[in-house]
Design a protein that fits this description.
The chain is an alpha+beta fold. A 4-stranded mixed sheet has the order 8-11-9-10. A 3-stranded mixed sheet has the order 4-5-7. Strands 1-2 form a two-stranded antiparallel ribbon. It is globular.
Length: 285
């Protein structure tokens, strides 16, 4: 009979090997997509779901535009559906016109969408973008260098490791940017940290737009905008409709110990997304 300690060691080694195998398999799939350096030609089509899909005919976001600058250029995740480009440019123009600052744009997607080797489960259909909360006076006064775009960090708007808002990092301008984004009709939802949602609920008079502001783990240094499926992308899969109401009465759970212990991605979720058949042709084109 195996001693208890020996059995535990064998179980641990077995689990570790299984994790490595699964992780490598997932990495192989993502690596195929990450090696693609150019979009396909032709009309833009978002295919599949936000976390299991791809993108035909992607557009490229210019690294600088009125009211925005793209960060982390080395990641080469500045591709998306033309609707996403139009959204970013329209939002940035509004932010510029209202003198709220300069938007620092994080990841969009890869040249043909698909799963990434790091950073995201979603961002696969060209309809997701991360935007930093940081509204830097320096970025508002000049174009950042390539080095600065790589080295700067997105600042958390939370105070230390607490659930409290750090008002040295958060301002009314942040709330105004979120409202501008949420009121655009093409936006399906915007993911933020639950503390950000709570701050908006406690400080906003007209709360109809808060329905689109969805609490999610992390998202304390950036907000994640997700667009609706374009009308002409027939294979694009929307998420379920948002529940009615502004959601402010359903925030309490996010501050419980139960919520804090749950992982952002359930362990039962498939590591390797099953992509639509159409994505095979997109990858090979």
């Amino acid at each position: 009979m195996l001693e208890y300690g020996s059995l535990n060691k064998k179980i641990f080694i077995g689990c570790l090997l299984l994790f490595i195998v699964v992780d490598c398999q997932a990495g192989i799939v993502a690596q195929r997509w990450s090696k693609i350096t150019q979009p396909t030609l032709g009309a833009a089509q978002s295919i599949g779901g936000y976390s299991a899909g791809c993108l035909k005919g992607a557009a490229t976001l210019p690294t600088d535009g009125t009211g925005y600058q793209v960060m982390r250029l080395s990641r080469k995740r500045f591709y998306g559906h033309p609707d996403l480009m139009q959204f970013i440019e329209n939002l940035a123009q509004s932010v510029y016109t209202q003198q709220l600052g300069t938007l620092l744009i994080g990841d969009l997607g890869q040249p043909r969408g698909g799963p990434t080797v790091s950073g995201h489960r979603s961002h696969q259909t060209g309809l997701d973008v991360d935007i930093w909360f940081l509204l830097s006076p320096e970025a508002n006064s000049r174009p950042l260098t390539v080095s600065e775009r790589e080295k700067w960090s997105a600042s958390s708007v939370l105070l230390g490791k607490s659930d409290d808002i750090d008002f040295n990092q958060w301002s009314l301008a942040n709330a105004q940017v979120l409202e501008l984004a949420a009121r655009l009709p093409e936006v399906d939802r915007i993911f933020v940290n639950a503390s950000v949602k709570r701050q908006l609920c406690n400080s906003t008079a007209k709360r109809d737009w808060l329905r689109k502001i969805r609490p999610w783990w992390k998202h304390d240094d950036h907000f994640h905008v997700r667009l609706k499926c374009p009308a002409d992308s027939k294979e694009c899969q929307n998420q379920d409709p948002l529940p009615q109401g502004d959601g402010c009465d359903k925030l309490a759970w996010w501050f419980t110990e139960e919520a804090k212990k749950l992982p952002p991605s359930p362990i039962t979720e498939s590591v390797e997304p099953i992509l639509p058949v159409s994505c095979d042709a997109v990858l090979k084109e």
